[in-house]
Design goal:
Length: 280
């Protein structure tokens, strides 16, 4: 199932998140019905990453953004768990450390971008600097309002260097967020995840919605598109993200490099070695 067109934010398009249904599940009625398709996409991801790594030419940057309990961690586990960790890494962006804060806001993001052949997953990202920074007035408007253009330039620079970029906003409803908070509260295994500030952040829901809508409108570009993923159903979120990443990698069509060695000569050497060691 190709959800690329459906969830793509066309460059410059105005997005009203309130009009996008976070409960959408497409043609699949439930998780059971989607199981085979999810498994299929994960297998494609595995194979395509193998080729991307072997090709050692291009790279992939995946940005995950969501409100608290939006499912970033689950997506990392269930979708990107398909990748071989040798060629993939996840970078979680937290409140900037003093060293990070002493640099320009893109410094830490740039340092975490993927090398040739690699995939980097940003769990939160440089977009926090026009999201939380804006909603909480961490910097004056005069400063954050200039960052959209800087982000677009930064991403353009990466694309020109051979990094493909996909950005996902995991879209949940306020009710679903509350359900997930309650589930965490009921399960001692999840208590470590609880954070008073998550509840306080709910008061800023509208502020975040507006800030996200501006990000989606101003920073979805042809080369570094944003996708809004209906994420109330975790299994559908996984299916949609996996299928979009798989289609994108398919299109990149990474090629195994030509063998550097003379395969004929190696085969002859192998046959000689095998003949010499086989019993008479
Ligand atoms: P979890 O789902 O486990 O809670 P999380 O991504 O919310 O994961 P936390 O450690 O709870 O991780 O939160 C990270 C916090 O860092 C978020 O509140 C986020 O807004 C904040 N943060 C990230 N980047 C910046 C930034 N550039 N400036 C200020 N705060 C930031
Ligand atoms: Mg958190």
């Amino acid at each position: 199932m190709n959800y690329r067109k459906r969830f793509l934010v066309e460059p410059g398009a105005k997005v009203q998140l309130g009009e996008l249904d976070p409960d959408f599940t497409g043609k699949h009625a439930n998780e059971t019905a989607a199981k085979a398709d999810i498994a299929d996409d994960l297998e494609r991801l595995r194979k395509l990453q193998y080729r991307l790594y072997a090709e050692h030419e291009r790279s992939l940057l995946i940005v995950l953004q969501a409100l608290d309990a939006g499912g970033k961690d689950g997506t990392v586990r269930h979708v990107f768990g398909a990748f071989n960790p040798q060629g993939a890494n996840v970078h979680a962006f937290k409140v900037p450390t003093p060293e990070e804060a002493a640099h320009d806001f893109l410094w830490r993001a740039h340092a975490a971008t993927p090398a040739r052949g690699h995939i980097a997953i940003f769990n939160r990202s440089h977009y926090e600097d026009v999201l939380v920074a804006r909603v909480h007035d961490l910097v004056p408007e005069e400063m954050w309002s200039k960052r959209y253009d800087r982000i677009n330039e930064f991403e353009k620079n990466l694309v020109q260097a051979g990094t493909h970029i996909l950005k996902f906003f995991l879209h949940i409803s306020p009710d679903e967020q509350l359900r997930r908070f309650k589930k965490r509260l009921d399960d001692p295994q999840s208590w470590w995840k609880l954070n008073e500030s998550d509840y306080a952040e709910r008061k800023h829901w509208d502020g975040y919605r507006k800030a996200y809508e501006d990000v989606l409108e101003r920073c979805s570009t042809k080369r570094a598109p944003w996708y809004v993923i209906p994420a109330n159903h975790k299994w559908f979120r996984n299916l949609a993200v996996a299928s979009i990443v798989a289609y994108t990698l398919d299109e990149l069509d990474p090629k195994l490099p030509k063998p550097a060695a003379d395969i004929g000569a190696i085969r002859r050497a192998y046959e000689e070695a095998a003949a010499a060691t086989s019993p008479a």
